[in-house]
Design a protein that fits this description.
With 543 residues, the protein is of the alpha+beta class. The chain is built from 19 helices and 22 strands. The strands form seven sheets. It has a seven-stranded mixed β-sheet, sandwiched between helices. Strands 19-18-20-21-22 form a five-stranded mixed β-sheet, with helices on both faces.
Length: 543
Amino acid sequence: MPATSLDTIVSLCKRRGFVFPSSSVYGGLGSTWDYGPLGVELKNNVKRAWWRSVVHERDDMEGLDAAILMNRLVWKYSGHEATFSDPMTDCRACKTRPRADHVFAAQKGRDPKGLAEINAAIEAKEIACPKCGSKDLTPARPFNLMFRTSVGPVDSGDDSGLVYLRPETAQGIFVNFGNVLDTMRRKLPFGIAQVGKAFRNEITPGNFTFRTREFEQMEIEYFVRPGEDEAAHDAWIAERKNWYLQLGMRKENLRVREQEKHELAHYAKRCVDLEYLFPMGWSELEGIANRTDFDLRAHSRSPENPDAVGELKYFDQEQKKHLVPYVIEPSAGADRATLAFLCDAYEDALVKEPPAEETAKLRDLVESFARSVGRREGMAADVKQRLVSAAEAIAAGLPATLPRLIGLMEDGEAGSIEVMKKVRGVGEKIAEEHTRTVLHLHPRLAPLTVAVFPLKRNDARLVEMARGLKRDLQKAGLRAVYDDTGAIGKLYRRQDEIGTPWCITVDFQSLEDQTVTVRDRDSMQQERLKAPELATALTSRLA
């Protein structure tokens, strides 16, 4: 059973070392996260797979790593200083400050067409504060999302040293267009790819690592002749969707959505979003935009931009003239993609049925939980209905619904009900023995490729062979670990939970014939392979 709530994913990430709250020893900092030992491996593998696909496996791409701090004029002429903002409103009753466009969309059932429509709705008392319900809201005004800092030893206070932490990596590519064109002798069409940090002072970050103030982008700017942009745009939409599918993402969880006219950025001719069905609903995974020639013209010397030192143009040998290329921009988030792959790979599965008496005891407790929720006062009606419906369905379906119960036990709202402590006590014991949590990550994305165990950790011969095998696999380029901290069954479960595709057990037969047991994560099937041939066999399965 896949994850039914984001809480389930958050719990796994914290428990198994994928993602930790940042600065937690001081109480943390809202919507900032640190990638732990397994999380950094997974995220790096996502970035490597992206780079391999869009740079190494293509003949028309170059890479770049531009600086985070850039001349302030870059953001002036890109339009970010003037337009990179979110509309905010203040509630005069409860003093909260929500995003006005989000309030409008939630209460009117559609996105607003602009600031004027939002303010017209506020003035007409058509929308209310999402916290207290008051309709006494201030007119919405723009709030700039760029983080400000200064360069130099002294802040003069006159903005002479003002710089921004870049809100996107794209502008670093645009201002380097001429440098890449000249040094790499490229002809249209060609693209420039970049992976790097970006920063946005989001007003309403949330949903774990889905929306944060510090994040990592994987962006492409693909330059084409005007008139060839629409075909190139369609080609990139298909290619980017296929990349996620090739890495194991389920087709039913990925869709293509065309942005409506009022949603388009001011520079965009067309934009298509690849959306993923996260536990909180369909949300953007990657945007693929036709930016026309807006950016290269914006950074070229002209009456509108007297500060630029030259023009960002391309001399077309065939047409014998200069032209300003159009740009197709596939823009993905490394953090968001990592989260999507985690959600898509997650499964709680029943591997064997528990004894009937244990099931009956657990069923009684879950039914008691449902009754307690039904009697609970002060709980929102929609939350109460959700918890009662879930509990009744789980109780009726036990033991097959045991994986669903795991998700309910991790639900924050359910935790406020006293009887849930008893449900957890019994449920966790049964779940540990009769279910498994598994991440069906593509082998190229999994944090670890293979784990090696000795059948008995107190037998020096088994330990020596297992450690040597781990070293050989590591030298062959496979991310391998050695573990002897538990019984084999428990070690299997531990590796399933973090997505390790293969586990290898060195037993007494291994000492005689140099064969080992290789267990597959997804099928749980086991086979005997010769130890000297193991690296070659597993490497071929990665391809």
